[in-house]
Amino acid sequence: MSEARAAAPSPAAALPATLHHTARTLGKPAAAVKAAVYQPISILAPEDLHLVNRFTGGWTPALGRQIAAAGGAAGWFAQQLSASAPDTFYQATAAWWTSNTASTSTLLARDRKKTEPIWEAVANYERWCLARRIHSERQVLETMTAFWENHLHVPAEADAAQYFRASYGKTIRALALTSFERLLQVAVTHPAMGCYLDNAQSTKKAPNENLGRELLELHTVGRESGYTENDVKNSARILTGYRVDVWNTWNVRYDPTAHWTGTVKVLDFEHPNTAADGQAAARAYLSYLANHPSTAQRIARKLAIRFVSDAPSSELVDRLAEVYLANGTAIQPVLLELVDSAEFRAAAGAKVRTPDEDVVATYRALGANLRRPSAATPAANQILWQTTALGMRPFGWPRPDGRPDQAAAWVSVSRMLASFQIHQDMAGGWWPTAGVTYVQPAARLPIPTIAFGDFVDHLSRSILGRPATWVLTKAACDAIGCAPTTTITAAHDVIRWKMPRLLTVFLDTPTHMTR
Asked: Partners of 434 in the beta sheet?
């Protein structure tokens, strides 16, 4: 991975005569430009931009400066993996929505008094997640939090689980860069997961098999491991005792009188399970599952699908699984192995952005800054409806398997048209309007007087993180009705009226719609 630098332009000979201006070495002014010389902003080497697109909410010039200050993308990535990295946005915005820091009893009281319905409290947690993915300094942490919340999925509208959903998400975030074993231990025994998959009401007299089954099928070893129905029953028995007094006091406790005792065997795991307090048996069982070779394969494949391609090679998956097991399920060594692989480096632009990723990346690309919610309909609240309009809010997938991560799920005509509408609304600053600061059109001019071709290059570097190609320049010329040599100032119609249309030229490209 290289340091931030300006990329070389395309050869002029490859372009039509009308676009020769764009092809000349960037930084030279057009003949029509008499004032300040256009100086292209620094961007990343393609391989570094690829890393940014996969592990952040999207490119911004400010992020490019951070990477340059870190000595390059490798140094920046190492800083991002460090627990000592600054986390001020997370801390400052925790109180933007009071429900995100409220206790379960407070949420219950507010819901019963109709001060704040519980669905609204959960929606506020989703909004906070989106805001963090736009503005947080801990971009890799936010990306990995979203990954694990999808793998260990608890839907936002999962009935009783809603009272614990924000707590669950914050717990996942705290462990998102540690180890899968630690994540699994906490997630499976968390009241949100217990309420969602009915373990909170499972007893020794009537063990509920939902969590025991999904733990095997979805969270760890998968069907390929060959587990049996008897394994599912024993899995459920091991997990009895973790209780929540749902729809009443909502008290969370471990109840030894509800725990099933007796020898249990799941795959190659066997435990006498004689103690009424079965938490030690549960910990041993979850540790076994986290360190199982089939779990290593499952986690490795999901990481490869998320960060490399929809169909990663078995060789890459096997290598990641080996690193996972060799490091005691630690997450960071697997990520470092992944980003250092040739398959990762060759996969730029191979992943389609999901609806929430598109919205997050659009805010970042446009430099739109959310403010603390205060108005009746602030952008920090409406951002959730933007993702819904594109087809999926952050935790809206209704099943326990988590939302799909392949392009086929997100490239429908309706999705694309909805994305184009969101892009246009935000490019014009038309919606949302309250609680958000947009970059004003004239402020996008890098110098007071600039050739249109250079202006397109500046916008491409700012929004997409790469120089303008002649195809992109031609598209901008056709959309706006300008030649590359047209002189643009703050008084030009491009700035006064046509900026929304020009910005959508960049936002509607495959470059922005993929990562």
From this structure: 378
What's the CA gap between 142 and 130, in Å, rounded?
Answer: 9
Each of the 515 residues of the chain gets a pLDDT tens digit; together they read 443 434 334 333 333 333 433 333 333 444 443 458 999 999 999 999 999 999 999 999 999 999 999 999 999 999 999 988 899 999 999 999 999 999 999 999 999 999 999 999 999 999 999 999 999 999 999 999 999 999 999 999 998 999 999 999 999 999 999 999 999 999 999 999 999 999 999 999 999 999 999 999 999 999 999 999 999 999 999 999 999 999 888 999 999 999 999 999 999 999 999 999 999 999 999 999 999 999 999 999 999 999 999 999 999 999 999 999 999 999 999 999 999 999 999 999 999 999 999 999 999 999 999 999 988 889 999 999 999 999 999 999 999 999 999 999 999 999 999 999 999 999 999 999 999 999 999 999 999 999 999 999 999 999 999 999 999 999 999 999 999 999 999 999 999 999 999 999 999 999 999 99
Displacement of CA 66 from its chain's centroid (Å)? 20
b/e code 491-503 from CB counts within 10 Å (16+ = b): ebebbeebbbbbb
Secondary structure (DSSP) of 208-229: --HHHHHIIIIISS-GGG---H
State how far the alpha carbon of 417 is from the alpha carbons of 197, 248, 274, 391, 499, in Å: 36, 45, 59, 11, 20
The answer to whether the pTM exceeds 0.90 is yes
CB atoms inside a 10 Å sphere around CB 346: 12
Q: 514 lies in a domain? A: yes
User: Nearest to residue 468, comparing CAs of 477, 457, 479?
Assistant: 457
User: 435 in a domain, yes or no?
Assistant: yes
Report the distance separating Cα 241 and Cα 253, nearest Å.
Answer: 8
The residues, ordered by sequence, that sit 6+ positions from 170 with a Cβ below 8 Å of its Cβ are none
463: left (phi over 0), alpha (psi -120 to 50) or beta: alpha
Residue 183: exposed, middle, or buried by beta-carbon count in 10 A (0-12, 13-18, 19+)?
buried
CA distances from 408 to 90, 314, 393, 412, 423 (A): 33, 21, 18, 8, 21
Residues whose CB falls within 8 Å of the CB of residue 239, separated by 6 or more in sequence, listed in order: 188, 189, 199, 202, 211, 212, 215, 282
Q: How many domains does the chain have?
A: 1
Q: Residue 430 belongs to what domain range?
A: 1-45+355-391+412-515
Report the SS3 class of residue 66. helix
Contact status, residue 45 vs residue 7, Cβ threshold 8 Å: yes
Q: Is 33 contained in some domain? A: yes
112 in a domain, yes or no?
Answer: no
